[in-house]
Write a structure and sequence with these properties.
Helix 1 packs parallel to helix 5 and helix 7 packs across helix 10. A hairpin with a 2-residue loop joins strand 8 and strand 9. This protein has 2 domains: 188 residues, 3-Layer(aba) Sandwich (Rossmann fold), CATH 3.40.50; 106 residues, Orthogonal Bundle (Arc Repressor Mutant, subunit A), CATH 1.10.10. The protein contains 12 helices and 9 strands. By secondary structure, the chain is of the alpha/beta class. The strands form 2 sheets. The chain has a 7-stranded mixed β-sheet, with helices on both faces.
Length: 336
């Protein structure tokens, strides 16, 4: 009888960038999809999607399907193994309440990867997961403006960055999620594969250009149309510090500018000083609270950085605005 054919040895990998994904329960699908699609489009010629120049795996300790926050389920492709087989381990987070529920085996795997100096990336609330695993001490991290307050509440002593789309601090990479995941992935592709594949990926995804990490988050709730990065970042800091307003000097310091330089940026971009813009922003927030909450006037004043109700009323008058009126409510029913 003829001898059985020997299996062919597997060809050595040509991949220049190897990424392992850890998906948290109820992870954000768009953050994962944007990241992995940049890798997919950069990995091959055209859009044939062969994992040649880039390779990726979805890792799991159980191989059970993982549901995203929108309900779409993703099947893992590999068990947890040697983290050194990857150039990066990327943790994709999602809903805040699921952060404590990462499996102990997965946490141990991340800690092992850190000990073996494999760079770790936190996408969306993945930065929260990495910090909960004790892997962000001494590192700066980027979080979404939407989750900035949550991060401060959960992790005392840290000052997360929420005025840029991603951050690379040595062997920790973090990004705010959403479209910024594509930009972080493109940054990695450019570094390991080349600028051409990085640009090709973004263009196919109808993203005009690669953004550097220090660009302000495009999804921040800024109600001014301005291309001035300094103004956009300053407004984001204002929104994050409504209850305890920052001085203009402190705003300028955080942006690496002089007070006069920041004032020139604001005058040119929005036609008013940063201090005047800050007061208007806080009054807008107070107006919103009057219309949508049942807080007392004193509580609303405190929540928007004013000393008391009288101070808040004067600020409305000084800025030519009427003090908001509370919406009419029906009288409570009498007790039997």
């Amino acid at each position: 009888m003829p001898s059985p054919a020997m299996p062919r040895p597997r060809a050595p990998s040509q991949a220049r960038l190897r990424v392992g994904f850890i998906l948290a329960r109820r992870f954000t699908l768009c953050a994962f999809a944007n990241f992995v699609d940049v890798l997919r489009l950069a990995a091959d010629e055209g859009d044939r999607s062969r994992p040649i120049l880039c390779e990726w795996s979805i890792l799991s300790d159980t191989m059970e399907p993982i549901a995203s926050s929108c309900g779409v389920v993703v099947q893992p492709t590999a068990r947890l193994g040697d983290p050194k087989s990857f150039d990066y381990i990327v943790v994709v987070g999602g809903l805040m309440q699921e952060i404590p529920n990462l499996a102990p085996a997965t946490l141990a795997y991340l800690q092992r990867a850190a000990r073996e100096h494999v760079p770790l990336a936190g996408v969306c609330t993945g930065a929260f997961i990495l910090h909960r695993a004790g892997l962000m001490d001494g590192y700066r991290c980027c979080v979404s403006w939407f989750h900035h307050a949550d991060f401060l509440e959960q992790f005392d002593g840290l000052r997360p960055v929420a005025d840029q789309i991603f951050m690379v601090d040595r062997d920790r990479l973090t990004c705010s999620g959403g479209a910024s995941s594509a930009h972080l992935a493109a940054w990695l592709v450019e570094k390991h594969v080349g600028i051409g594949p990085a640009r090709k990926s973004l263009q196919i995804m109808i993203i005009d250009e690669a953004l550097r990490g220090e660009k302000p988050q495009p999804a921040t709730p800024i109600d001014v149309s301005s291309s001035d990065d300094a103004v956009r970042k300053a407004i984001l800091h204002m929104r994050q510090n409504v209850e305890t307003p920052l001085s203009v000097e402190e705003l300028a310091r955080r942006l690496g500018l002089s007070r006069r330089s920041l004032e020139r940026h604001f005058e040119k971009a929005v036609g008013r000083s940063p201090s005047a813009y800050y007061v208007a922003l806080r009054l807008d927030q107070a107006d919103l609270l009057f219309r949508t909450s049942r807080q007392t006037v004193a509580a609303i004043a405190a929540a928007t950085g004013f000393c008391d109700g009288s101070h808040l009323a004067r600020a409305f008058r000084t800025n030519g605005r009427a003090m908001p009126q509370r919406p009419a409510t029906s009288a409570p029913a009498s007790m039997p």
